From TrEMBL:
<dbReference type="InterPro" id="IPR044635">
    <property type="entry name" value="UBP14-like"/>
</dbReference>
<dbReference type="GO" id="GO:0004843">
    <property type="term" value="F:cysteine-type deubiquitinase activity"/>
</dbReference>
<dbReference type="InterPro" id="IPR038765">
    <property type="entry name" value="Papain-like_cys_pep_sf"/>
</dbReference>
<keyword id="KW-0378">Hydrolase</keyword>
<feature type="domain" description="USP">
    <location>
        <begin position="156"/>
        <end position="737"/>
    </location>
</feature>
<keyword id="KW-0645">Protease</keyword>
<protein>
    <recommendedName>
        <fullName>ubiquitinyl hydrolase 1</fullName>
        <ecNumber>3.4.19.12</ecNumber>
    </recommendedName>
</protein>
<dbReference type="GO" id="GO:0016579">
    <property type="term" value="P:protein deubiquitination"/>
</dbReference>
<feature type="region of interest" description="Disordered">
    <location>
        <begin position="295"/>
        <end position="401"/>
    </location>
</feature>
<dbReference type="GO" id="GO:0061136">
    <property type="term" value="P:regulation of proteasomal protein catabolic process"/>
</dbReference>
<dbReference type="InterPro" id="IPR001394">
    <property type="entry name" value="Peptidase_C19_UCH"/>
</dbReference>
<dbReference type="GO" id="GO:0043161">
    <property type="term" value="P:proteasome-mediated ubiquitin-dependent protein catabolic process"/>
</dbReference>
<feature type="compositionally biased region" description="Polar residues">
    <location>
        <begin position="295"/>
        <end position="304"/>
    </location>
</feature>
<dbReference type="Pfam" id="PF00443">
    <property type="entry name" value="UCH"/>
</dbReference>
<keyword id="KW-0788">Thiol protease</keyword>
<dbReference type="InterPro" id="IPR018200">
    <property type="entry name" value="USP_CS"/>
</dbReference>
<dbReference type="InterPro" id="IPR028889">
    <property type="entry name" value="USP"/>
</dbReference>
Length: 1246
């Protein structure tokens, strides 16, 4: 919710003004301080000056619109010095404001904690609306331009421009249809290529702009050399169209409903294609009149509308009539919550409500069977240019003359475009009223839907059941409705209705499954005869299943009264146990949770149960026997019912599995996932890629990031789990199987696809390529010449390392351990529930330091493994859950050590629950802390065992949070209640404990990641020295060894700088010695490999080119040389005692190694061999510079190398030691490598 006018959260007005000024300047750097201050004071006269979204929105819009109108020619960001660009050049998103929260800078992070949703953008201290969507070509989105180089095996990503993940996801989904891309590329006539567009009705000018911008965006996505691009002005055009119906809600900087926006965008694009087809057929039409060229950008009439040209009858402003009915004849499901307006919406393919639009489908034309001609026929046939305007002003460039004739090629192009669009998207639905037996009566109604989109209710659990529910429905008046399709398109969308705003106000998180292959025959009218018979059989089986289910429920849920039920088998078992005197008493609870009134001074002696004998109860033995027979009968009946229901369910699920209903096959091609709640959260897309050679792989398109994932992983995220903390699919795209004409564009080579583009798009592609190459070359030059750095003394990494942390108040010095009760791990203190007292909170500076540290580590974790966790909170949850699962886990401890079956714990057994709960918290750690494989693997145990000076409430918080686990049943609910109580009682809503736990989890995970990459390096070295003979394999193995060593070194050094205050070296798992040894071994082996090529006339540097097996990426010579240079540079720093190198604890004399390598490089550079090959001399000189020149400054950053699967810390350390033993003495291997290098460089140059 936005702030109310007049509210303020900052008492120091100077500090508030400084925050506002800093935030505006960060987003709009071209605006002067004076202009911003003037705006602040202007709005301060009518509103309280504050750093809230409410006030900053006013200042932002004032600066953006007013200032840019006066300074049209200015670009945003650093123009002449891109190297000085901010490292955080991305725009910021708008964030809701909680007026109760005391700290502005913490608000967004609080939303993460409370709502468990994913950030759409990088962190920022102040969140603002999206900045101008246009930008200079020099604008930097990535500090390292090398990292912007695209992997051509992956789809181009899209930059998040402030809550624009919905647009990015939809764009990626639509882009995945090659034929649709081709239609957009070739639809606009040449008369639209000069602005302003005059060959279009004023009402559709913005639609025409949208079409031009989408085709340009698709061309950039296909041919961009950058890993991600920015959508730019198209977002503002979408906003114009969205707000043209009078709504005040902007789409810019705000989250939108992806399903609704898909329908709107497709309708706008359909309108624009209609307008383009009309322009092709009527090139003489112009909306320009008199002395003023008036182009409308809204649905309002232009000022000169009384004299503007009018369209012939074929060009309609309203929707073309394409169906025999204007309204669906069956009742719709509930409306979506985010519908942009409150007008009555139109219906989708099943009658579900969707936003209203003036367009339903492209006018029906005679079918054209041939594929669309993607050649630029309208441009080949004539030299047509935009029409000459008689009112042209002096000094304006005179357009070329236009041939306004319409030839056969143009007619053919228009027809092919129209028919291709219909073939892709258009469906015809027949709606009938039917009797109970399935026979129809009354008039059939037909509707045409373009595009075809099914709105499916996720409560049905799977796609086919949801489709059936929309096919067969019952109106409120009891009339049965059947919706069957006469025709289906090549692609259709499924919108999973997860937002029921008008019913519950919450997102529906139900699990919903859908197949990868789908047969749609049962929903076609032509298959009604056979599907009708099968449906009757289906209804009979379902009725039979319902009867069996009722019987089973009668056994398992017998009513007790007051809304409670009991399992009859359990009831009889209980009676049998009681009458058999199985339990005579129960000991008292260790710590009762509550006392009844009047029992305060009574001794707690537990429970005594009644004792039954034959003397007191004649016939007791017979009764027990009869009870046992009843139990056996009930169990047998339950077993039979379960088996019958399984058989019926299997029959129901396979009833349509007949050959006659397997002719219209569709395949899942893309899906959009949503994580979050109503009006907040994050979208991303999964898309299927099929290469020319038939290889299939799924991509995760998460804004700018593109990663390859397995479908098993997709299923875990897409189906949903029922938990509000897990993502779920929201939109599905199915494509017709075997429709080669639809996907043919993806099977073209790069040059073929580029040649098929219209000439204007080819020019755009070449322009963007030249701009990026210029930026890349400028960046590379800046890395070579750095005269402003006389001496390099520390590693440079991006983003910059946070300052070294000092001791926090929750991690005490040794002296404090004896004076602070919260720092004394006494069992009685650990027993104190977090919701029973005021847990100390931390100051803003400590919270900010921890957030910065977490964010820094999170960037590194996601860079190396972007698909592991969707958010930093998920990372924490994953490590907390490890405490409960597996061998020696919490669940096993509870059931073995406490002799308690978790499944038998009942919610009303409060004393027993409390006893087990407290025993686990106070005793579990002590039981497993001595087990190395546990405390090096389980995060919570690791923290307690390795950090004995930690604040005791943190220990309890971690243990309680780890118990919030479905496997712990009522214990998990008990833990959740304590955490909720702590958050309610805490003055910072639990932020203190969450931040501590989050940072420690990231430190733990980064330590594991560092050890894993060190292990990869050592394993690669073991393979190289012990196993390999093939030269091509040796190259990749050595490259992996260098990358693994470098990543381990960067991660380890980062950890030591930010976690030094913990004073526990064992938390890093690996040692500096481990890293130094593998770094030097990998360096020398790789160095020898390159030197052998440099000193051999018959060898060429391109001999090092290989294709990496794990990524398919081409590894070039320069990639290998770059990593060798980084290794040489590292040896240079270690020889000077930098980056943690301690000569007293090292296996290697770095100073001596530095001298030896320097001498060898001097010899190589001066040898006769280098005189004959400038390319080889360049490589040798570069390596010499890396080792000896203080001005050399390589990009010492993380690199994605071989696939890295994390194991436990203990396992990683064990494997490293195993590889070290296998390789042998490190110093001996180093000496052998140096000897080989000497032998190579002293050999004659042959």
């Amino acid at each position: 919710m936005d702030d109310e006018p007049g509210t303020s959260r900052d008492s120091n007005i100077d500090l508030v003004i400084a925050k506002v000024l800093e935030g505006i300047k960060e987003t709009l750097p071209h605006v002067t301080d004076e202009f911003i201050m003037e705006s602040i004071h202007k709005h301060g006269r009518t509103d309280t000056i504050s750093a809230t979204e409410h006030f900053m929105n006013k200042v932002f819009h004032d600066c953006f619109y007013s200032y840019t109108d006066e300074d049209q020619g200015k670009t945003f960001g650093p123009e002449r010095m891109p190297e000085m660009a901010s490292t955080s050049s991305e725009p910021m998103e708008v964030v809701p404001y909680d007026a109760k929260h005391p700290n502005v800078t913490n608000q967004y992070e609080e939303e993460q904690i409370k709502k468990a949703m994913l950030n759409s953008l990088n962190d920022g201290s102040i969140r603002l609306p999206v900045p101008p969507l246009s930008y200079s070509p020099n604008t930097n989105f990535c500090e390292n331009e090398e990292e912007m180089i695209r992997d051509w095996n992956k789809t181009t990503g899209l930059l998040n421009q402030g809550n624009s993940c919905w647009f990015n996801s939809l764009t990626q989904m639509l882009y995945s249809i090659p034929k649709f891309r081709s239609i957009l590329h070739h639809s606009p006539p040449i008369t639209w290529h000069q602005l302003p567009i005059v060959n279009v009705k004023p009402k559709f000018v913005i639609h025409a702009e949208l079409l031009l911008q989408f085709r340009a965006l698709f061309a950039q996505m296909q041919f961009s050399e950058e890993k991600f691009i920015r959508a730019g002005e198209i977002l503002r055009t979408v906003d114009k169209l969205y707000t043209s119906n009078g709504t005040n809600q902007s789409t810019i900087g705000t989250q939108q409903d992806a399903s609704e926006m898909l329908i709107l965008i497709m309708q706008w694009l359909g309108d624009s294609i209609d307008a383009a087809m009309y322009a092709h057929e009527n090139p003489e039409y112009s909306n320009a009149v008199d002395d003023n060229l008036v182009i409308s950008d809204s649905t309002d009439q232009p000022a000169n509308s009384d004299v503007a040209g009018t369209a012939p009858p074929g060009y309609q402003e309203e929707a073309p009539v394409v169906s025999s009915t204007t309204k669906s004849s069956f009742e719709p499901p509930e409306s979506r919550p985010n519908t942009p307006t409150e007008k009555e919406p139109i219906r989708d393919a099943q009658g579900a409500r969707i936003p209203k639009s003036p367009r339903q489908s492209i006018p029906q034309l005679a079918p054209v069977e041939e594929a669309m001609d993607t050649s630029d026929v309208s441009r080949k046939s004539s030299s047509s240019q935009p029409p000459v305007l008689e009112n042209q002003k002096d000094g304006e460039e005179e357009p070329l003359p236009v041939d306004l004739t319409v030839n056969e090629d143009t007619v053919s192009l228009v027809n092919n475009l129209k028919q291709s669009y219909k073939k892709i998207f258009e469906a015809t639905l027949t709606t009938s009223t039917i009797h109970q037996d399935g026979s129809s009566y009354g008039q059939e109604n037909k509707t045409v839907h373009c595009p075809a989109s099914f709105t499916l209710q996720v409560e049905y659990g799977n796609l086919h059941d949801a489709l059936e529910a929309s096919t067969f429905s019952v109106r409120d008046d009891g009339v049965n409705i059947r919706n069957m399709y006469e025709t289906l398109p090549a692609v259709f969308f499924c919108s999973l209705s997860r937002f029921q705003f008008d019913r519950t106000g919450e997102k529906v998180h139900n699990k919903f499954t859908f197949p990868r292959e789908l047969f749609m025959d049962r929903y076609l009218k032509e298959c009604l005869e056979i599907s009708g018979v099968l449906r009757k059989e289906l209804l009979e089986k379902r009725h039979e299943l319902s009867l069996n289910r009722a019987k089973l429920q009668g056994v398992r849920s017998y009513p007790l009264g007051n809304g409670k039920t009991i399992n009859l088998i359990d009831a009889f078992e209980t009676v049998k146990n009681v009458t058999s005197n199985m339990r005579l008493s129960e000991p008292p609870s260790i710590e009762p949770s509550k006392r009844e009134e009047g029992t305060n001074f009574l001794e707690n002696t537990g429970k005594t149960f009644p004792y039954f004998t034959e003397e007191n109860f004649p016939g007791l033995s017979s009764y027990i026997e009869k009870t046992n027979e009843a139990i056996m009968t009930l169990k047998k009946e339950e077993s039979v019912l379960v088996k019958e229901m399984e058989a019926l369910q299997e029959k129901i699920s396979s009833i349509h599995d007949v050959d006659e209903l397997k002719k219209h096959k569709y395949e899942l091609h893309a899906m959009i996932i949503h994580d979050g709640e109503i009006n907040r959260g994050h979208y991303w897309t999964y898309k299927l890629n099929k290469s020319i050679d038939g290889k299939e792989e799924w991509e995760k398109l998460n804004d700018r990031e593109t990663t390859v994932v397995s479908y098993d992983q997709i299923e875990k995220e897409a189906y949903g789990t029922g938990s509000p903390h897990d993502p779920s699919a929201y939109l599905l795209l199915y494509v017709q199987s075997g429709a080669d004409w639809l996907m043919a564009g993806d099977n073209e080579t790069h040059s073929e696809s580029l040649a098929n583009l219209p000439s204007d798009l080819q020019s755009l592609v070449h322009q963007k390529s030249a701009e990026f190459k210029t930026r890349l070359e400028n960046f590379r030059q800046r890395q070579i010449v750095r005269t402003d750095l006389p001496h390099i003394t520390q590693m440079v990494d991006s983003p910059a390392l946070p300052k070294s942390l000092k001791s926090f108040s929750w991690y005490r010095g040794l002296d404090d351990m004896y004076h602070d009760v919260n720092a004394n791990p006494d069992e009685s203190i650990l027993r104190d529930r977090l919701d029973s007292y005021q847990v100390p909170v931390l100051g803003d500076n400590e919270i900010l330091d921890m957030k910065n540290t977490t964010s820094f580590l999170w960037n590194k974790i996601t860079f190396l493994d972007p698909s592991a966790f969707v958010s930093s909170e998920k990372l924490l949850e994953a490590h907390l859950l490890e405490t409960i699962d597996g061998e020696h886990g919490g669940k096993e401890y509870i059931e073995k050590n406490l002799s308690c079956s978790i499944n038998e714990l009942k919610e009303d057994a409060e004393n027993e629950i409390e006893s087990v709960y407290n025993s686990f918290i106070t005793n579990y750690i002590g039981t497993v802390a001595h087990l190395k494989k546990i405390y090096l693997s389980r995060f919570v145990v690791f923290v307690v065992a390795q950090l004995p000076r930690i604040h005791v409430p943190v220990i309890r918080y971690l243990l309680v949070r780890s118990m919030i686990h479905d496997k712990l049943g009522v214990l998990g609910k008990h833990a959740k209640k304590e955490i909720q109580g702590y958050m309610e009682n805490s003055s910072d809503s639990g932020n203190t404990m969450y931040r501590i736990a989050e940072m420690l989890a990231h430190i733990f995970h980064t330590s594991l990641l560092s050890a894993a990459h060190c292990r990869i390096s050592w394993e690669s070295l073991e393979v190289f020295f012990v196993e390999l003979n093939q030269s091509r394999e040796r190259i990749e193995t050595l490259y992996n060894a260098m990358i693994g060593a470098k990543n381990a070194r960067i991660l380890n050094m980062s950890l030591r700088r930010i976690a030094d205050f913990l004073e526990q070296p064992s938390i890093y798992f690996i040692t500096q010695q481990d890293i130094e040894d593998c770094t030097v071994l990998a360096l020398l082996a790789s160095f020898r490999m390159v030197v052998s090529i440099l000193m051999n006339r018959a060898c060429h540097l391109h001999d090092l080119h290989i294709t990496l097996t794990h990524t398919g990426r081409t590894l070039l010579t320069e990639n290998i040389v770059e990593e060798i240079c980084i290794g040489l540079y590292t040896v240079h720093k270690w020889s000077k005692g930098l980056e943690g190198h301690d000569p007293a604890n090292s296996n290697i004399n770095m100073k001596e190694l530095f001298v030896l390598l320097s001498n060898k490089l001097d010899f190589i550079c001066a040898s006769d061999a280098m005189e004959h090959d400038k390319e080889k001399l360049s490589v040798a000189s570069k390596m010499q510079t890396a080792l000896t020149d203080n001005l050399f400054h390589p990009l010492d950053t993380l690199t994605v190398g071989a696939e890295c699967e994390l194991d436990s810390g203990e396992s990683e350390m064990t494997q490293i030691n195993k590889s070290r033993i296998s390789i042998g003495n490190t110093q001996s291997k180093i000496n052998a490598q140096l000897a080989d290098i000497v032998a190579v460089i002293t050999s004659p140059y042959m």
